[in-house]
Write a structure and sequence with these properties.
5 domains, disordered N terminus
């Protein structure tokens, strides 16, 4: 259906453009005999075709704060522009495209997609009163009026006809959460096929409201004059609609669907290539009566000027810019004795043998040079790719170090020491407990204080609860080329304040955390580096558990779990600790949704090792066929070319890793590995790819529970 609509749009554009281009050709032919410039209105149409993106701002999607590119959709525009004055122009246009938005939360789950067709006109102003007459870049602003149509649909059912039911645990199921048969519900996924007409479904009782309205476009842009006729324009415009029903939701909607009462609007950003049909009335030829116009008189007055002072007037000088002292030929151009098309004063190889191909410096290009250039042109391996790394501050390259951030913490223990189950639960009960990696050792610490005295007070509080500590330490964090590095340095007791009064212990409250995963064999923290507030704890059972965040209420933790679900961590679940014990969620006042079994949320420590960790679609197997810091050996490059579809990726340590294929199962990857080894790449191995991060094959299996 989408392809059919696209074909109709293209057919419509062709019908419009064909007569315009024919008219342009006729205009050029007529210009040969038309009279000189006429006074009054100038008819000088410019046509353009462009492509851009729509970003919707309305009730669905909370106005899409930040305008993330994933909420943008493609659009196409046709324009016809004519200047009214040198500074002001009138532009007629048509735009076709799609706007869309989705939202997920514990209370509201809405989505829509609408086909937009709009036509209108705007007046533009190019600041010609203030800018130089000859300019390559030309900024402009514009505003106008337009009419548009919209056809809004929503995605309510999957491809098998199951209606989406959004549960409070973040999943989508085929049965409602409060249904008596909720225990048999199956998890389903959105297919992003918008099959339900919003107006026809009439959920809010709006009836057959018109799916057309008016809007006011206001925008800015700039144009680049490529040559006398072709111009590239880039612009962005906000379209303020006179309706609040583009997404099918308004302040009159029912229940959680209710909007905020503001009219909808959408942002359209486009790049348009325009063609100037030339002003009617301009003449390319001189008048037939032989009279000399003002332009010719000025030209003849300059025919004795010799800009480069080489003895040949500019009027007949083919190279009026010749540098001083350079030998010239009869045409006024620098001599080229070896006829290689590079002037002698710029030629690094004199003479060049006749018939040799040369570069821009006049040096012969060998067969080896041509072969290397062909390799660069046909490169599929990334050997000739120039990598640049962007720092977080937006600049290219790395700084060697940054000013370290220093705080004070209480060190309880570290992963290398034996910790009992009771001690571990006490640690997790403290809301300010976290783990810090320093010099390949993971330390168990509490707090993050600006002074050693505050840390000492906290140490006394912890020890009053019966938890032993190792002392107060200084935590220094700095950013280096290798990433963020933290150093833990313990402070001797004699260097700490002696008299520090403790406050009322605050560790008797409930602490909610979100457990992301549990593994018998620890995975690299790089696997979960996009998980905020990551906490890594190895228990006495030998299982390493990964937690995220620390919250006072179940609602806060549930919201955080939902965000992790949307990142792909579908196995995440909420756990609760209080006074050194792990509690069932009901015991600490967490209210479970109707139809949700306690066993579905209260995962036992003995069974969490079997719970899926991430969405299977986020983990792929690939074949690492090479890893190099410098150039690839020629023989290896030939093997890459034979294998085909080998792509480079920059590793954390700066190496360039070359990867082949993408597979969903380990069996498919093993077959591809055998093919790579048969091609001569004996050191090839299977690796994992999780959310764009390179991980080991074993880590990929752990995430998939294979």
């Amino acid at each position: 259906m989408q392809m059919c609509r696209l074909n109709r749009h293209i057919f419509f554009l062709v019908l419009i453009l064909c007569p315009i281009f024919v008219f342009a050709q006729e205009t050029e032919e007529e210009e040969e005999t038309l009279p000189e410039d006429q006074e009054g209105f100038i008819f000088r149409p410019t046509i353009g075709l462009g492509v851009g993106t729509f970003t919707f701002m309305g009730d669905v999607g909370l106005y899409n704060k930040g305008y993330h590119p994933t909420v943008s959709r493609m659009g196409y525009n046709l324009t016809v522009f004519n200047p009214l004055t040198p500074e002001i122009g009138l532009n007629f246009y048509a735009i076709f495209g799609t706007v869309s938005s989705s939202e997920r939360s514990l209370t509201r789950n809405l989505n829509f997609q609408s086909q937009i067709r709009t036509g209108g006109m705007v007046l533009s102003y190019n600041f010609g009163h203030f800018l130089p007459e000859k300019r390559f870049l030309e900024p402009y602003v514009f505003a106008g009026i337009e009419s548009f149509e919209f056809l809004t649909k929503t995605d309510l059912y999957d491809r098998f006809g199951n209606r989406y039911n959004y549960w409070s645990d973040g999943s989508i199921r085929n049965i409602a959460e409060n249904d008596p048969n909720a225990a048999t519900a199956m998890i389903i996924h959105r297919d992003y096929h918008y099959e339900t007409d919003v107006r026809e479904s009439n959920v809010d009782g709006f009836g057959k409201y018109p799916e057309r309205s008016w809007a006011v476009p206001v925008g800015i842009g700039f144009s680049m004059n490529l040559n006398r006729r072709w111009t590239l324009k880039m612009s962005t415009s906000m379209h303020f609609a006179f309706t609040d029903l583009v997404d099918g939701v308004s302040d009159a909607s029912l229940g959680p669907r209710q909007g905020d009462g503001k009219n909808d609007r959408f942002l359209y950003t486009t790049t348009t290539l325009t063609y100037d049909l030339q002003r009617l009335g301009s003449s390319k030829k001189k008048k037939e009566d032989g009279m000399i116009d003002e332009e010719m008189e000025d030209y003849l007055a300059r025919d004795t000027v010799d800009t480069d002072r080489d003895g040949i007037p500019d009027f007949v000088d083919d190279c009026a810019w010749t540098p001083k002292g350079v030998e010239i030929d009869k045409r006024g151009c620098p001599v080229d004795k070896d006829k290689d098309l590079v002037f002698d004063y710029l030629d690094d190889e004199l003479p060049t043998p006749k018939g040799n191909l040369v570069d821009l410096k006049g040096v012969t290009v060998t067969d080896e040079d041509l072969y290397e250039r062909w390799l660069r042109y046909s490169d599929t391996t990334g050997k000739y790719v120039v990598f640049e790394t962007i720092r977080e501050d937006g600049y290219f390259g790395y700084t060697t170090t940054s000013k370290p951030k220093t705080t004070f913490v209480v060190v309880i223990s570290n992963e290398q020491k034996s910790v009992s189950p009771d001690e571990l639960r006490k640690y997790l009960s403290m809301r300010d407990f976290k783990t810090v990696k320093s010099n390949d050792t993971i330390y168990y610490v509490v707090g993050d204080y600006l002074s050693a005295e505050e840390a000492k007070v906290r140490q006394n509080e912890i020890e009053e609860l019966g938890i032993s500590t190792e002392g107060v330490a200084q935590s220094s964090t700095k950013n280096t080329r290798e990433g963020t590095q933290t150093t833990i340095t313990k402070i001797p007791d004699d260097k700490l304040p002696k008299n520090t009064n403790t406050t009322q212990p605050h560790d008797k409250d409930v602490t909610f955390r979100v457990q992301v995963g549990a593994f018998t064999k620890p995975v690299s923290q790089e696997v979960f580096k996009d998980v905020p507030g990551l906490l890594v704890v190895k228990g006495p059972d030998g299982i390493t558990r990964y937690y995220s965040g620390s919250y006072k209420t179940f609602g806060e933790a549930a919201e955080h779990k939902l965000k992790l679900d949307m990142q792909g961590y579908s196995g995440a679940f909420v756990v609760a600790y209080k006074e050194g014990e792990r509690k069932n969620l009901e015991e600490v006042g967490a209210t479970l949704s109707e139809g949700t079994k306690s066993s579905e949320l209260n995962i036992d420590e003995k069974t969490d090792i079997n719970k899926p960790v991430v969405d299977a679609g986020l983990v792929k197997y690939k074949i690492e066929v090479g890893r190099y810091k410098n150039d690839i050996p020629t023989e290896v490059l030939d093997m890459f070319l034979d294998l085909g579809k080998v792509l480079p990726r920059r590793a954390e340590n700066g190496d360039v890793v070359y990867l082949y294929g993408e597979f969903s199962t380990i069996k498919e990857a093993e077959a591809a590995l055998k093919a790579a080894q048969n091609a001569g790449l004996k050191k090839a191995l299977i690796i994992g790819d999780f959310n764009g991060k390179i991980i080991s094959a074993e880590e990929a299996k752990s995430l998939l529970r294979q």
